[in-house]
Write a structure and sequence with these properties.
Layout lengths: L1 E4 L4 H12 L7 E4 L9 H6 L7 E3 L6 E2 L1 H11 L8 H27 L7 H22 L9 H16 L10 H10 L3 H5 L6
Parallel strand pairs: 1-2
Antiparallel strand pairs: 1-3, 3-4
Helix pairs in contact: 1-3, 1-6, 4-5, 4-6
Length: about 200
């Protein structure tokens, strides 16, 4: 298998965390790619019509894309242990992906638009999604972040790490002390250390 990959992408990092935690890293070749909304990579676009990462090329079937699809495929391939929480677990993963979507949107606004054209209300709206999602996890989903490793833990960790990486002043910890404490511990896992954007 081959994975279109960028170490800074939180969606890619979630997939690579799954590879690490399920013992499948040696089964996948990482294909570094630089792509954006305004400059899509042509090889990636040939495999994924949306020209987005991650995209997983596999033998005997079409390329898989969207991190949730890839993660569930890899989990099934490894014996199906990460989604044991059922629908609640999938909602937690979706919440993490929502944090990633909002944080990546903020990054695009800051990095691709000239400073004089950046929309402050847009940035504030995306940040409110990040903080609101963290608060929801704090009040509703913390029990799913304990116990054996699961997709919720990996997705939330990838999301929070990206927020810290690109938006260190987001302030998500202020109303989410339990989540902050959990993340501080989870960040020490070997898979998290091996997938740091500055470690690849």
């Amino acid at each position: 298998m081959k994975l279109y990959y960028s170490p800074a992408s939180p969606f890619v990092r979630k997939v690579v965390l799954v590879l690490h935690e399920t013992g499948q890293m040696d089964d996948v070749e990482l294909l570094p790619v630089s792509t954006s909304v305004t400059g899509p990579d042509s090889a990636l676009a040939a495999s994924n019509p949306l020209a987005k990462i991650p995209a997983l090329i596999r033998e005997g079937g079409p390329t898989l894309y969207d991190s949730r699809v890839i993660c569930e495929f890899l989990d099934a391939r490894a014996g199906g242990v990460l989604y044991r929480g059922g629908w609640d677990m999938k909602v937690l993963e979706a919440t993490a992906d929502g944090i990633m979507d909002a944080a990546v949107s903020m990054s695009y606004e800051k990095r691709l638009r000239p400073a004089e054209k950046q929309w402050d209300a847009w940035l504030e709206g995306q940040l409110s999604k990040v903080v609101g999602a963290c608060t929801a996890i704090e009040t509703r989903w913390m029990p799913l972040l304990s116990g054996p490793i699961n997709i919720g833990q990996l997705a939330i960790a990838a999301a929070l790490a990206y927020v810290d990486f690109r938006h260190p002043d987001a302030g998500w910890r202020n109303a989410s002390p339990q989540l902050a404490k959990w993340f501080e511990t989870f960040e020490t896992r070997p898979s998290m250390q091996a997938t740091r954007p500055d470690a690849t």
